[in-house]
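Re-run with default settings, no changes from the original entry. Doing this only to confirm the output is reproducible before filing.
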Amino acid sequence: MMILLTTSRNPSQRTRRFINELIKCIPGSAKLNRGKTPLRLLLGRSIGDTVIQVIERSGNPAVINVYRGGRLEIGVELRGVKLLQDMHVVRHRPASSLVMVGTAWVADALSQALGVQLYPSADPGELRGVSDVIAVIVGTWDGWRLEFLDGFDLGPCGPAINISSVEAAAR
């Protein structure tokens, strides 16, 4: 299964950096510059693939829509994104494996949408060395926070995403 990451038309530099950081964290993913290609046409061509569309507002990533089998699987409204550049961290190697840690229903929905293993453990340190990247999702007082950690030193290796709301498609 291939995961294609794309943006809305004419993305800002910050949104392009966000996509590039996600590509390094999500194994089997690739960036697709769709230009003026309508999203429905792209979804029709990639029935067996997962398509992640990042929509921006005011030059910043604002919404992530995950499509599987040509249908919207989950929509994530972002409140804020902190890139590796903002954290003064450099990450060069792409991940070959990804696992997710979290106990919230959002962790379950995201792990299913991305097709990754979910560990309901509250401590990512228990999974040190199990995977190249550990995606940790925790509840906050006003939403959730998703962080991508290096599976060996548990330092940041991808964007930190503050999520304000999540809508899972009815099956």
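The domain at 3-168 is CATH 3.40.50.10480 (Rossmann fold). Residues 84 and 159 are 6 Å apart (CA to CA).
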